[in-house]
Structures are given as structure tokens and as C-alpha cells.
Amino acid sequence: MSDFTWSSKRVVVTGGAGFLGRHIVTQLRAAGCSEIFVPRQVDYDLREMGNVHRLYREARPHFVIHAAGIVGGIGANRDHPAEFFYDNLMMGVQLLHAAWQTGVEKFVAIGTVCAYPKFTPVPFKEDDLWNGYPEETNAPYGLAKKMLLVQSQAYRQQHGFNSIFLLPVNLYGPGDNFDPTSSHVIPALIRKCVEAQQRGNREIVVWGDGSPTREFLFVEDAAEGVRLAAERYNKSDPINLGSAFEISIQDLVHAIAEATGFKGNIVWDTAKPNGQPRRKLDTSRAEREFGFKSRVDFPEGLRRTVEWYQATQARTA
Question: I want to staple 221 with a disulfide (CB 3.0 to 4.6 A). Which of 29, 89, 117, 294 is the partner?
Fold first, then answer.
């Protein structure tokens, strides 16, 4: 798509004020897109079809990038499975259906690595997506997002509608959610380490036994991957977005302790769930189909995230 230009496109980015969404908006602006509409939840409850149609009437988008979602770590998923299923399912299904109804040129659905089966062969290949049930603690969220893949493929088959489905791995970076009740593992651990130092605590407690592995993608890289897919990819086959870097939770905790300067003890609460045993994506399809490869390595990304949090905390103290 060498002749593609964002300058002539109107784009709706749901979740555009959120963690990933803000970086997607930045990417689009840098690429020359000047007409970007970010619907705020207070103005558009996207679980209601009337609001979805009103959004499309008012914004008249050529492209819709659906990055909104009700998300959280293991604890939040375990405490709110019904909300995570219903809210994510209703937003996605209605946004894509109305996009087809109103003649949107292209719909970009942002899925989740939580859609993969609990015991997926490593590295996760897109073709393994249906070979089992997701990890139980986040299955309602993962399955709700996964329905966008089914819908995308069905609408392309029946209507010729151009929609794509992306599967980003766990994201991290400056601007992440550091709320201890809903944050993911990296921001949660950074906050624990920083606050332990400030309070003079000699230990932190971490869920599980440290054995699971995870792959993390720096948020700026993820946003670039979304933009490139929006520009260049026009199939409904799912596409992984990742860094292909795998680290155990035990090693991750030690890396975060070192990056934050925490020198106390790490206590593993093995009564709490580990989550999925391993996560590492095969990222070859994204590189082959639209030239995406992550650029920020994990030590640099972690350093930038810790520095951002410490600076933000200092400003708000």
C-alpha cells in the first residue's frame, strides 16, 4: 500500500485516551492524520447501540481502531468476570456491526493474548488460537475479545467487509495504569517496590511462585504495530504483536527491584494464582505481512517506565 496516506482519512480511536490508545493517536498524527475522533466514555457508552450509531454519524470515520476495553490483572479479572465479559463483548460486537452497516472503510480490532488456550505450545502461533480453553482467571475477558475475530471473519466472508484482528501481548511503558486494584504485573510491581522503599518496608509480597513466564511489548512499539497493520494488512487472519522476548515472573521481579533500587526481601504468596504458565508469541506473521518488528528492548523499556513513574509520583507528591 505504498500509495496509502492518512492525510485523507477520518479515524475513530476508541480508547484513544487510554494507555495504548494515546500512543496510537500519537502514531497517527505523526503519520499525517489530522482528523482523529476519540470518544469519551462519559459521552458515548459504547455498550449501547444507539451511542455507537451516534458516534459514527458525528465522526463519519473511514477507519475505526477499537482499542477500548475493560482490562486488568489477575485479581481484577477474578473479581469482575461478568463485567469483563459483557462490557468487552457488547462494545466490540456493536462497533464492528455498525461499522459494516454505515460503510466504514476498515475496522481494526485490538484483541488480547488472553484469548490463547491455557496450554498453548510456545511460541504461540496464531493457528493454535482455537486448540483449547483460555486460562481460567482471564477467560471471560479473553473470549469476549476473541469473538471479534469470529465476527471479523464472518463479515468478510458474507459481506466483504474489511476488518482485521490483532493480538498484542502484555503491554507496558510510561503512562501505564499503576492502580494496585486493577494494574497488570509490571506497573503493580514497580509501585510495590517504590512504595516499599518510601515506607522503609523490608519486603514485598508477590502473587504466585514466580515460575510463569511472560512476554512484554513496549507500548510505543505496539502502537506502531497497530498503525502499520491498519495501513498495510487486509485479511481477517489473526496477527500477533509482540517482542518475542520471554522472562519468568521471578526474573522480572528481580529486574524491577534492581531498576527501582529496592533491596529488601521478596515473599511469594503461593496461595494466589500464577495465571497462564507461559506466554511467548511467534511474531513472524506480523513481520512478514506488514513489516512490524519491535524496537525497544526490555531493559530500556523497563528503565523508561520506572523513570516515568518515579517522576510522576514526585510531581504529585
Answer: 294
